[in-house]
Amino acid sequence: MAFQTEYDFELPRGYVDDSGTLHKRGVMRLATAADEILPMRDPRVQQNPGYLSIILLARVITRLGDVKHVDTKTIEKLFTADLAYLQNLYRQINDMEAPKLHTACPKCDHEFEVEVDFLSVTEGLS
């Protein structure tokens, strides 16, 4: 199975452009580190941290119907149900599944897998 970097979606309500055309289908790509870091310098995010999701979505949505360029103005005009849907999709495709380690009990040799939580492991190291 090939590594997937783009995900098709269909908005529950749809984006209505200035001419009244409804756009429902689109594509979202995986976020990069820059997608999450660079918007933090944006004055709109510094004044209102809630604006971060608007900028993030504008960066990672590569297609929305026949819209030529998806930008923050496009995302601002989405219905709230569509915004919530896209925020959820963003989290779903960008969250990393915890790695699993195959191990065995030293007493009974029962084999099993455990999730490795790197965040919990590093908390006690400082």
Report a brief summary of the structure.
The protein is α+β, with helices and mostly antiparallel strands and 126 residues long. The chain has helices at residues 33-37, 43-47, 52-60, 72-76, 80-94, 118-123, and strands at residues 6-16, 22-29, 61-64, 100-104, 111-115. A hairpin with a 6-residue loop joins strand 4 and strand 5 (111-115).
Give the rounded overall mean pLDDT: 89
- Total of DSSP H or I helical runs spanning 4+ residues: 6
Rg, Cα atoms, Å:
20 Å
Strand content: 25-35%
Major sheet summary line? 3 strands, antiparallel
What does this structure look like?
The protein has helices spanning 33-37, 43-47, 52-60, 72-76, 80-94, 118-123, and strands at residues 6-16, 22-29, 61-64, 100-104, 111-115. It is of the alpha+beta class. The protein has one domain (6-94). The model is unreliable at 121-126 (pLDDT under 50). This is Tail assembly chaperone E/41/14-like protein.
Helices and strands, with pairings:
Blueprint: E1 6-16, E2 22-29, H1 33-37, H2 43-47, H3 52-60, E3 61-64, H4 72-76, H5 80-94, E4 100-104, E5 111-115, H6 118-123
Antiparallel strand pairs: 1-2, 2-3, 4-5
Protein name: Tail assembly chaperone E/41/14-like protein
Organism: Cohnella lupini
